[in-house]
Amino acid sequence: MKLPTYHWGMLGGGSITLFHVRGIKIAVDWSWFIVLFLVILWMSRFFGDLLGESASSTTPFLLAVASAIGFFGSILLHELGHAFVAVRNGIGITSIQLWIFGGMARMDREAETPGTEFRVAIAGPLVTLALVVLLTAGGILAGGAEEFREAALVESSSGASGVLAMVAWLASINLLVLVFNLLPAFPMDGGRIARAIAWARTGDRGAATRFAAGLGRIFGWFFIGAGLLMAVTGAVLGVFGGIWLALVGMVINGSARGASMQTAISSRISDLRVADVMDRQPVTIPGELSVEKAFDEYFFRYRWPWFPVVDAAHRFLGLIVRDRADEVPEVSRANSLVSDVVEFDDGTFQVRDDAPLDSLLSNQNLRRFGALMAVDAEGRLSGVITAEQVGRALRDAAKQPA
């Protein structure tokens, strides 16, 4: 089963980057190789039985590999659906990672409105639905409705060709992913859709999250119980499928519990804005300053690895990083401007100073860089907010009576 997830913090390290799509890193976690191996092993046996050949023969093996690529390709398309809609709504995507339970589009922050939450959540299932329709239509046109139905049920005696069986299997597995994904179990897509609806009806994101997280925990415990029962009895999904379902339930339960706890914490700082805790007098470097003076007056003086850069109107341009400045030859530094070597910001390094402080709890860029530049409505730099300052605000809030 695939857990949807434009979710935060469920993966550890050890990912391998495969390629990039429109600037979005596509990576795989080490656990992905386990599922890849199991899918190829299982499908090789199926195609071997279907074609009357050994599972290790060339044709069944190649069909199994193609099926595995198609399966993970469909999951990637699902996550790209989330990602592209998120980007269109102003939410950055740091990466998409495939792992043992499916895929994950990692967003740098949460949606700010229930409408945005709904659009991002429904995008993935709509892509999967489109794949089911296309694969089913193609399979029926190629082999007829009855033969396609038998192949979709993974019947080795269906008499279908290997290619038709592969198309039918991809259609059925995507349908299963779609149905499972739309269950209202937060943080799956269905759970996020439920949160968006509750948020729109109540106007309270915290209450909506608690409601969706409660549903997620109920489904999580149900999956654990049902999975363990199947593992013991061998019924329905069998031993392996039962263990898998129980593990999915544990992941859902833990994620829903974490979301509920984060909501409880964030509710205590819901009245605070970034401007309430940020450093209002950050050290900045004018973009028209020479690189030589940047070294003399800033890098050598403060010993910091980077500084925010502003233009004449104090609008935030980006960051100048010591390593990038070191690349400028010493003989050229007097005639080179800071603006020539600045890493211009595309929104990655900044946050609005009137943004709710609790919106930074899930901000991946703050976690990655340790600080963000706070800007006003006109883009002028008004301060710097650090992870330490957010943590201090949380600790102070935790000391207050609930």
Number of helices: 14
Helix/strand order: EEHHEEHHHHHHHEHEEHHEEHEEH
- Silhouette: globular
Could you give the count of β-strands?
11
Task: Give the distance, in angstroms, between the N- and C-terminal Cα atoms.
Answer: 39 Å
The SS-based structural class is alpha/beta
Number of domains: 3
- Strand order of the biggest β-sheet: 1-2-3-4
Radius of gyration: 26 Å
Low-confidence stretches: 1-13
Please state the average pLDDT score.
86
**Helical proportion, percent range:** 55-70%
Give the SSE map:
Blueprint: E1 16-21, E2 24-28, H1 32-51, H2 58-88, E3 93-99, E4 102-107, H3 114-143, H4 145-152, H5 162-181, H6 189-202, H7 205-233, H8 238-266, H9 274-277, E5 285-286, H10 291-302, E6 306-310, E7 316-321, H11 322-326, H12 338-341, E8 343-344, E9 350-352, H13 364-369, E10 371-375, E11 381-386, H14 387-399
Parallel strand pairs: 2-3, 5-6, 9-10
Antiparallel strand pairs: 1-2, 3-4, 6-7, 7-8, 10-11
Helix pairs in contact: 1-2, 2-3, 2-5, 3-4, 3-5, 3-6, 4-5, 6-7, 7-8
Write a short abstract of this structure.
The chain has helices at residues 32-51, 58-88, 114-143, 145-152, 162-181, 189-202, 205-233, 238-266, 274-277, 291-302, 322-326, 338-341, 364-369, 387-399, and strands at 16-21, 24-28, 93-99, 102-107, 285-286, 306-310, 316-321, 343-344, 350-352, 371-375, 381-386. It is α/β, with parallel strands linked by helices and 402 residues long.
